[in-house]
Design goal:
five-stranded mixed sheet, 60% helix
Length: 586
């Protein structure tokens, strides 16, 4: 038996990998499946009902293409790899995201795709808007800002800003994080869906949002231009400016778009306006442009009609779902608040418990300290009682000393009075002695004067005697007999004898006068010596009194007293010293 040949058996299925913005899926597809079959499978898998915005995109050489729904998958120019890779992306963009996006999954996929386009700089965004969009992206990912949980550096691994914005300013990552966190902190109580919707509402106002750009040339002049297709219409741009179009054709103003190989013709609704033609050299690009024009125009017309039953049901369900989720969020917020209050109450109770424990411990310690203090106070009371007894004894002794000092003070007063009396008597005696000394001096002067006169008289008498002797010497020599008796018979002789007697009388008076003067001088010297002894005794008594007063003032602080009749101590001492100086001079 010979076998001429066997046909190679064709597989009935093929592998497909579909990548969404946040997941990857693999499917086993039948060979006969069309593009719509695979697209519906992906939508059912992710739970998407707003299918008219999305499509399956694949890469063909240097461009991309969208999987056609009415043609078999394997019959299209898809890659021959196994598995075949598709990207599930938004093909058409809504005019107003808040009104057209109904499902949360639709909103979430748009949010992820627009965010990636902004970070990849496919959509131009200013630095200020980039920071604000980044704050909503952080709110959608992390929820409400909590400074205790979101520490500095928690955004270090997240890509939130375009590289162009990061390079435009000389700021560190920490500084960018600080600016984003400042906006992020203001988005408290915003849910993830609301944060993503706010992100899309800001992004839809950007000039490059939802625009697909294609390189074209204008007829006859081969001028390079850019064609932009979006939900609003067709726009013509200069190659270096994708923000401001040179010319725009809104869908409401376009009557017809015709395509013939490489030539496109845009016919305005107003027949008076000029028909615009442009050329595109790539056939795949031309087909893609035509698909986008048809799809965006269909959606443009659909938005201006009454919603279909399916869309109405979806919106009603979405509204109910939002209301239910709002109620659930409110319940959750109340539960969260109650839980937080319970946690705070628990923390407060624990804090109060710790506080009470600390107070109990402190009370026990205080009780122990009070017991120790009571024992110490009892001991101190005993010591105080003993000290009180000792102080009472000392007080009694002090009272006795005080009485003794009072007696001493009285004695001192009496002694002072006696001393003052003695001083007055001494002063009177000194005055008397001074007077007597002056009187004696005067008497001495008189006696000296009398003495001088007596000496003069004696000298004159001696001279006279010498003269008489010289005169009478011859008579004495002639008459050697005894002298005759005196009498009336011999008067001359009587005169001479009388003169001799008078001379002898003068000598005896001088001796007597000298003896009296010497006696008075001795008496004066004795009285002066006696007065000096009294002064020395008075001085020693004053010094002893001063010493006793100083000793009494150092031991006891007695109250000092003054009397009008007494001189102060310092003045008294000065008076004593003056008097003693006077007495010493005397």
């Amino acid at each position: 038996m010979s076998i001429l040949g066997l046909k190679k058996k064709q597989p009935k299925t093929f592998k497909v990998k579909v990548s969404t913005m946040d997941a990857e899926m693999e499917f086993s597809c039948e060979v006969k499946w069309k593009g719509k079959d695979l697209f519906d499978l992906v939508c059912r898998t992710i739970g998407l009902r707003e299918t008219w915005f999305f499509g399956l995109r694949y890469t063909v050489k240097d461009t991309y293409a969208w999987l056609k729904p009415d043609k078999r998958v394997l019959d299209q120019e898809v890659p021959k790899d196994s598995p075949i890779t598709f990207h599930f992306l938004a093909k058409f963009f809504p005019e107003k995201v808040e009104d057209e996006l109904v499902q949360e999954i639709t909103q979430h996929l748009f949010f992820l795709q627009v965010k990636k386009q902004i970070l990849d700089e496919e959509i131009f965004c200013s630095p200020e808007a980039s920071v604000l969009l980044a704050s909503y992206a952080v709110q959608a990912k992390y929820g409400d800002y909590d400074p205790n949980f979101h520490k500095p550096g928690f955004l270090a691994q997240d890509e939130l800003l375009p590289k162009r914005v990061l390079m435009q300013y000389q700021m560190t990552p920490d500084m960018w994080e600080e600016k984003i966190t400042a906006w992020y902190a203001e988005h408290r109580s915003i849910t993830r869906d609301e944060a993503e919707m706010e992100y899309l509402k800001i992004a839809q106002d950007l000039e490059m949002y939802g625009v697909s750009y294609f390189s074209i040339t204008q007829n006859k002049r081969d001028t390079e231009l850019l064609l932009g297709v979006d939900a609003q219409g067709l726009h013509i741009y200069c190659p270096n400016s994708k923000l401001s179009p040179n010319k725009s054709f809104p869908w409401s103003g376009i009557r017809n778009i015709s395509y013939s190989e490489k030539e496109f013709t845009i016919k305005p609704l107003d027949k008076k306006k000029e028909v615009f033609k442009f050329y595109s050299s790539q056939l795949r690009v031309n087909k893609l442009i035509l698909q986008l024009c048809i799809g965006n125009h269909d959606l443009f017309m659909r938005r201006r009609k009454v919603d279909s039953i399916e869309v109405q049901q979806m919106k009603a369900q979405a509204k109910e779902e939002k209301a239910r989720k709002k109620v659930e969020r409110q319940i959750l917020a109340r539960e969260k608040q109650m839980r937080e209050e319970a946690e705070r109450a628990k923390e407060e109770m624990e804090r109060r418990l710790f506080q009470l424990q600390d107070e109990a411990r402190m009370a026990n310690e205080a009780l122990l300290r009070s017991e120790e203090t009571a024992d110490l106070l009892a001991e101190k009371a005993q010591i105080a009682e003993e000290e009180a007894k000792l102080l009472a004894h000392k007080a009694a002794e002090a009272e006795q000393d005080r009485q003794r000092l009072e007696v001493t003070a009285l004695k001192t007063k009496e002694e002072k009075r006696l001393m003052e009396q003695k001083m007055r008597e001494a002063e009177q005696l000194a005055v008397k002695l001074v007077e007597q000394s002056e009187r004696r001096l005067k008497e001495a002067d008189h006696l000296k004067q009398d003495l001088n006169e007596a000496k003069d008289a004696e000298r004159r008498a001696k001279q006279k005697l010498v003269e008489i002797t010289k005169t009478t010497y011859p008579l004495i020599a002639a008459y050697s007999s005894p002298p005759p008796p005196t009498g009336p018979e011999n008067p001359d002789m009587a005169v001479d004898m009388g003169g001799s007697i008078r001379m002898d009388f003068k000598d005896s008076d001088m001796k007597r006068l000298s003896m009296e003067i010497e006696r008075e001088r001795l008496e004066y010297m004795e009285k002066s010596k006696h007065l000096q002894d009294q002064l020395k005794e008075l001085k020693s008594e004053i010094e002893s009194l001063k010493l006793e007063e100083q000793q009494q003032a150092g031991i006891y602080n007695l109250r000092s007293y003054t009397e009008p009749s007494y001189i102060p101590h310092s003045n008294r001492n000065s008076a004593y010293m003056a008097q003693m100086a006077f007495y010493e001079e005397v």
